[in-house]
Design brief:
about 85% helix; flat; mainly alpha
Amino acid sequence: MKNLKMLRKEFYEYIQVVVKPLYHLFTTIDNLLKLKLDIYVVGSGISSSIERYFIEASRYTLIAILVAISTILLYIHSIGLPLLNSILLVVVASLLLLLTSIEFTVILPKILYRSRGSTIESKAILLLSATTLLLTGGQNIQNVFENLPKALGKDYRYFSIEIDFVKSLTRLGTPLDIALRKAAEITPSATIKEFLSTLASISNIGGDTPSIMRQQLDRYIARYEIGVEKAVESLNIYMEVFVALALLIPVLVGSIAVLTLLHPIAGVSFEYIMFLSSFILLPLSTVVVIVLADTIVSRIRP
């Protein structure tokens, strides 16, 4: 058992040594290109810090490169490639995998950041309402953030990143207004950003907190109504397109069928056209419209 633990420890240390250059590469790219990935990483919830994210990305990149090299070596051994060609193949494959990993490491947090932004933007009214109720009950901003998990219940999971971020910073001794402004920098939702920035200003200079929060809640409801109207207009357009396709496809199929009967085309039969339209075109257009409609509705569903 001791030997197994020693081997595991040595293997882990070896992996750490190999991972360090990849970690520094990711960090250098982020700093040189000023990507500000820390905002996307923390705000998307993919990791609690940019350092931990880069370490995990380096490990997965290393594993992918090792697996690819092993596969290529087996392939080379099976076909008996010359040494120079084998080395060139391994180097090119490793570089391609490295470039792909770098691109994936940069793009993934941004995709998840935007996805989470759409989700919590539509549910921001839950956070605004809970905060307004707690403030109206006489609690200060610090106590509000301590009691928000209980007030939100199961909906707390949507806003846990921002709330926990503020709570962790204040427990470390960071002033509340600074903690709120830092949380506003990482959140992907424009409404939550305004909410946190407003609370930071109130915490710093004071003000009628319940009244200000009610005004922000009214502004959000007004924006939400506009968003619902735009969503309804988009759904109307998609439905009109779908109805037009549903009416147009049978006419096109009938016209083509008549043409093929009068002037047969080699390899194209009436049965083939019917199968294509009935089992592929119509179901495909239906699925596309349903997916688009669901995407629109999910953006405004509270």
